[in-house]
Amino acid sequence: MDASGRENSAPRNDSKPIQWAPTLDAAPHSNQLICVMSNEHTITGTEANFASEVVESDVPVLVDFWAEWCGPCKMISPILDQIATDVAGKAKVVKVNVDENRALAGKFNVTSIPMMLFFKDGEVKDTVVGAGTPKDALQQKLEALA
User: Fold this and answer.
1) Which pTM does this prediction carry?
2) Which pLDDT does position 46 carry in this prediction?
């Protein structure tokens, strides 16, 4: 057991104690997640603008279904913001809050979040569920549709 009270069963090559570092998404001296839910390139999707921003889009769209209370959603949000900046003009990233847009979540059978749908020509071409997919893989999926 280390100084923080965590069990430590990881194999070690030396006798130094393992130092637990805070995760990148943790605020210093806090248990709260730091999260920016959008940037100037990320679009907030709603039931009112979904058709124009996603279905009728002339570029591929990554749609992220998320919620405020979802920890993994908060973890992946900054990554999606980076992707939105990287693909600006070639593709879009649209974020849909499932609590505020229940009809959209139902229409696309969103049962787990985060859930990312990749659209081209108004149709879903790929789906990723969870926050475990690396940024490069998500961005490649989106760019492959361009």
Assistant:
1) 0.75
2) 97
Cα-Cα end-to-end distance for the chain = 51
State the Cα–Cα distance between residues 65 and 96, nearest whole angstrom: 5
Q: Which positions are catalytic?
A: 70, 73
Cα-based distances in Å from 11 to 17, 80, 91, 139, 140? 11, 34, 44, 35, 35
Asked whether 95 and 43 are in contact (CB, 8 A), the reply is yes
Quick check: bond before 134 cis, omega within 30? no
User: Measured between alpha carbons, how far is 27 from 55 in angstroms, rounded to an integer?
Assistant: 37
What tokens were used for 1? 């057991």
What digits encode the pLDDT tens for the residues 128-142?
A: 999 999 999 999 999
How far out from the chain centre does Cα 31 lie?
Answer: 20
Distance, CA of 51 to CA of 139 (rounded, Å): 22
Residue 102: enclosing H or E segment and its boundaries?
helix 102-107
Q: Which domains does the chain show, CATH number per domain?
A: 42-144 (3.40.30.10)
